[in-house]
Structures are given as C-alpha cells and as structure tokens.
C-alpha cells in the first residue's frame, strides 16, 4: 500500500506531517520535528494535518489487517491450551473460551444499609407543586 502523501512537500513539511501523524497536537508535532510555531503560521495547517491523518489511518488499517491475519492462528493456539498436561492451564483456557463465547457469569452482590440493616429508600420530588396527589 504505497502512499503519495509526501508528493510536493519539502523537507520541513514532510517532517511536520510525520510528527503530526504521531502527535496529539500541532504544538507537540512542532516540538518533535524541531520546527518553530512561526513556520507553521505560514503554512496551510489544515492540509498538512489532513495528510498526517491519512498516514495515521493507513497505519491503523495495516495493523488491523495484520491482526485479522493472525486471528485464526491465535484461536488455534488458545484452543491448543485445552490439550496441555497441566490441569490449571486447561482450566484457565477453558474458562476464557467459555467466557468469550457465552459471556462471564454475573457476580452476585448484596446491598444493605448501615450496619447490615435494610436499605431505606426516600423519594423526594424537586417541584412539589407539579406532583399529582393520588388521594
């Protein structure tokens, strides 16, 4: 996946675009590239940042493709953990596979009031004049 992002850019513009593709702000990119703020004031910042975003997206797409290609092999490795001799490893792998497929078992919790007493629930209305009186 060859990119033409750098066509027509000079050395500083290229350095800025590369730095900006990794930085969270223009200021950080300028520091990383060793370029002054004044230089950026004379440039089309939006266009340079657009080019940096293209690089960022290309990297994300490439990384996603690599992970997609490795997914089947990783699943086979995980499933192979069920065939090892160590029962602790088998149990951990089995639990992980079950939880991935079925979801984790909900954890129960008990909520009580102070000192283990029942909870007291109080309902207050913000505007007493708009309350409907059931009586």
What does this structure look like?
This protein is mainly alpha-helical. The chain has a domain at 11-104. The chain contains 5 helices and no strands. It has helices at 11-20, 26-33, 37-41, 45-80, 87-102. The N and C termini lie far apart (74 Å).
List the helices and strands and how they pair.
Elements: H1 11-20, H2 26-33, H3 37-41, H4 45-80, H5 87-102
Number of helices: 5
Termini separation (Å)? 74 Å
SS class: mainly alpha
Helicity level: 55-70%
Poorly predicted runs are: none
Please state the overall shape, judged from the principal axes of the Cα atoms: flat
Mean pLDDT: 87
What series of H and E elements makes up the topology? HHHHH
Number of DSSP strand runs:
0
Strand content: under 5%
Largest sheet: none
Radius of gyration: 29 Å
Defining traits:
mainly alpha, 5 helices, 0% strand, flat, 135 residues
Short description:
The chain is an all-alpha fold and 135 residues long.
